[in-house]
């Protein structure tokens, strides 16, 4: 039953949404403007194009031609990113997934960590050198709930320290995270950051140290 539910064989691409998935997203889509030229772009097609980019990791200009023009998809993506629509959609889906797991819709605890990834030079991208991981690229600073569901993310140059990236990440927390009371982290987040969090937020940052002698 589960395999049939998530079967993507009949879709154009494996990243395309099913009708049921689109039904969850559609209410968040902006209504057509009352003035100006009528909208002719299918927003479901735009969202599928964004999911294709996110799933494959391909460049914008490599978007298949059966999607709307790259300039159109990119404009919608940046608009939805900047006006908070994508965050709103993510928080809604996180709440639904948590309820399906028998949890409260809004999390009270989370986990913060970072990951450095190699990236090539781009005209407008940022990258740096992570001396600890010996990686030249970018660093993803991520906060998830205890189910592993994404709550917030900030991308910086890999040269940015974990503690500095955490400050940027925590300052961008939306109202969805207003019930957070505890965030676990590894030893890289010790020190002044713990006091900084205590002074500015209602939640507490708790670094968890690896037991002496334990590797991995």
Structural account:
It is a single chain. With 216 residues, the chain is α/β, with parallel strands linked by helices. It is 34% helix and 19% strand. It is globular, with a radius of gyration of 20 Å.
Layout of SSEs?
Elements: H1 2-5, H2 19-25, H3 43-56, H4 70-82, H5 85-100, E1 109-118, E2 128-130, E3 135-145, E4 150-157, H6 162-171, E5 182-185, H7 192-200, E6 204-207
Parallel strand pairs: 1-5, 5-6
Antiparallel strand pairs: 1-3, 2-3, 3-4
Would you count the extended β strands for me? 6
What's the order of the H and E elements?
Answer: HHHHHEEEEHEHE
Count every helix, treating DSSP H or I runs of 4 or more residues as helices.
7
Could you tell me the radius of gyration in angstroms?
20 Å
Using the alpha-carbon principal axes, give the shape. Answer: globular
Distance between the termini: 37 Å
Average pLDDT, to the nearest integer? 89
Q: Runs with pLDDT <50, length 5+?
A: none
Structural class: alpha/beta
In a few lines, what is going on in this structure?
Helices cover 34% and strands 19% of the residues. By secondary structure, the chain is of the alpha/beta class.
Key structural traits:
single chain; 216 residues; alpha/beta; six-stranded mixed β-sheet; 7 helices; 6 strands; globular
